[in-house]
Design a protein that fits this description.
67 residues, alpha+beta, Multidrug-efflux Transporter Regulator, Chain: A, Domain 2, 3 helices, 3 strands
Length: 67
């Protein structure tokens, strides 16, 4: 039986810490990206969460700006 090294995430919302791990960035970098509106987030009460689709869009935008 084989398992994938990094299985695809099954959740839709990430904490800042979880988003940082997903993007391989530091938490402070994620907070900076959120503060400058480069990384959209949603508020659930007082808590900020980042949507998986937004994280993937951010990575795709990085790929296109590098070319």
């Amino acid at each position: 039986m084989t398992t994938a090294a990094n299985p695809a995430p099954t959740r839709a919302l990430f904490t800042v810490k979880g988003a940082a791990e997903y993007l391989s960035l530091g938490r402070s970098t994620v907070y900076e990206l959120m503060a400058t509106n480069k990384l959209p987030y949603v508020k659930v009460g007082r808590i900020r969460r980042l949507r998986l689709v937004e994280l993937d869009a951010f990575v795709a935008q990085l790929e296109t700006s590098a070319n």
